[in-house]
């Protein structure tokens, strides 16, 4: 009974049709114990960063357009602020896409395998990707430290350049954790998972690559 309930919850999370009238619910991880706490925390951080980034970008862009055409004076830091928000949205979005199982997959060989080899391959893919993402987080952190040592600042906002790049290692780190949790999810569950909350398979509107 609990397995059917979990499948129903996962289906509701992955279904992209007919959800316009459904009430929004907070993400609750199906991973046990501390792992579930980490997974849920990452999900909430992603939601806050993406929502704040998109809303601020929209507000900044609209305000700049109104100022330019109505008051004949644009916001002098608008371009730099949007650049900061694009970096934020991009790297928070990497982790979000990993959680939703939406990253591009070359699955011809994977789909041709029997279930057990597919599961093994999914674990390997998740582990390798997690290592790669965490490695990128480390190297991007070193780059930020280098930029901080140079003392460069943005021309308009006059804030250090390294501050706007903080989201790069943060995004890579959250993505690495997400793939690591996906590997663990596949090790402790019988089914094959593309992420901690998305079972292997395709929606009606999707195509295999």
How many domains would you count in the coordinates? Answer: 1
Q: Major beta sheet, specifics?
A: none
Along the chain, the helix and strand elements come as HHHHHHH
- The low-pLDDT segments are 12-24, 203-209
User: How confident overall, as mean pLDDT?
Assistant: 81
Beta-strand portion reads under 5%
* Category from helices, strands and their pairing: mainly alpha
Shape label: elongated
Number of helices: 7
Distance between the termini: 34 Å
Number of strands: 0
Biased composition (Polar residues): 9-19
Subcellular location: Cell inner membrane
GO biological process, one term: C4-dicarboxylate transport
InterPro entries: DctQ, TRAP_DctQ
List the helices and strands and how they pair.
Elements: H1 2-14, H2 33-70, H3 78-100, H4 108-112, H5 115-150, H6 161-164, H7 167-188
Helix pairs in contact: 2-3, 3-7, 5-7
Question: Overview of this structure, please?
Answer:
Its main location: membrane. One of its GO terms (cellular component) is plasma membrane. This is TRAP transporter small permease protein. It holds the Pfam family DctQ. The complex comprises the extracytoplasmic solute receptor protein and the two transmembrane proteins. By secondary structure, this protein is an all-alpha fold. The protein has one domain (about 30-190). The chain has helices spanning about 1-15, 35-70, 80-100, 110, 115-150, 160-165, 165-190.
Which descriptors apply to this entry?
single chain; 209 residues; mainly alpha; 67% helix
């Amino acid at each position: 009974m609990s397995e059917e309930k979990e499948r129903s919850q996962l289906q509701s999370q992955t279904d992209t049709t007919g959800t316009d009238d459904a009430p929004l619910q907070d993400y609750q991880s199906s991973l046990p114990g501390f792992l579930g706490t980490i997974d849920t925390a990452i999900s909430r951080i992603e939601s806050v960063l993406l929502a704040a980034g998109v809303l601020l970008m929209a507000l900044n862009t609209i305000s700049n357009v109104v100022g330019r055409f109505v008051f004949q004076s644009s916001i002098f830091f608008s371009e730099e602020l949007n650049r900061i928000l694009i970096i934020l949205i991009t790297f928070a979005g990497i982790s979000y896409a990993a959680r939703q199982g939406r990253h591009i997959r070359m699955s011809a060989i994977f789909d041709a395998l029997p279930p057990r080899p597919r599961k093994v391959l999914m674990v390997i893919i998740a582990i390798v990707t997690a290592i790669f993402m965490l490695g990128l987080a480390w190297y991007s952190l070193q780059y930020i430290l280098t930029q901080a040592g140079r003392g460069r600042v943005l021309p308009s906002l006059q804030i250090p350049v390294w501050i706007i790049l903080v989201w790069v290692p943060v995004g890579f780190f959250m993505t690495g954790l997400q793939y690591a949790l996906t590997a663990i999810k596949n090790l402790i569950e019988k089914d094959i998972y593309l992420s901690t909350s998305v079972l292997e398979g395709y929606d009606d509107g999707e195509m295999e690559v």
